[in-house]
UniProtKB/TrEMBL annotation:
Its EC number is 2.7.1.-. This is Probable RNA 2'-phosphotransferase. One of its GO terms (biological process) is tRNA splicing, via endonucleolytic cleavage and ligation. Belongs to the KptA/TPT1 family.
Length: 183
């Protein structure tokens, strides 16, 4: 296997597309929890012009810095860890979050978020980070990064549910404006 870093990144982005948003792009169907058999995924990837074998897929999963993908225990199925815009039930159990979590965004969105809160929009959950570095990196994808502080502990005590994905991203349905401040 001799994938360049750029080829690995491109394949990772394509896997994100088909495992999170458009499985129909290569003719796969995710089950209720977002899983697809690895053999089926490899077959459909190869039929769609992406030369991918087990070793390459394992490399992409293992080297993805954001740990966006996960295999099941037997490594027979694969799914995206979170971020789906297609309906899946990831099976995460409610968790008690830290008192403070963070959300990274671009500076152009801050005023709107402080007025109306964070909404999941096309995704299944709002994504939150346990550290400011990760939040800043996420915000940088949307322009000049701004890190927002989220009063997750207070939200949880008021009945809001939080989930922790396999790749350690905190998930919740929405964050009302009163729980958000600029770091």
């Amino acid at each position: 296997m001799n994938l360049t870093e750029k080829e690995t990144t491109n394949l990772s982005k394509f896997l994100s597309l088909v495992l999170r948003h458009q499985p129909e792009a290569i003719g796969i169907k995710l089950d209720e929890q977002g899983w697809v058999p690895v053999d089926e995924l490899l077959d459909k990837l190869n039929k769609s012009g992406h030369a991918v074998n087990w070793e390459i897929l394992q490399h992409v999963v293992d080297t993805n810095a954001k740990k966006r993908f996960a295999f099941d225990h037997e490594k027979l199925r694969i799914r995206a860890s979170q971020g789906h815009s297609v309906a899946v039930e990831l099976g995460y159990e409610p968790q008690t979050p830290p008192e403070i979590l963070y959300h990274g965004t671009g500076s152009q969105s801050v005023e709107s978020i402080l007025q109306s809160g964070l909404e999941k929009r096309a995704r299944q959950h709002v994504h939150l980070s346990a550290d400011t570095d990760t939040a800043a990196k996420v915000g940088g994808r949307h322009g000049k990064p701004v890190v927002l502080t989220i009063k997750a502990g207070e939200m949880h005590r008021l009945g809001y549910q939080f989930y922790l994905s396999e790749n350690k991203v905190w998930l919740t349905d929405a964050v009302p404006a009163q729980f958000i401040s600029v770091k």
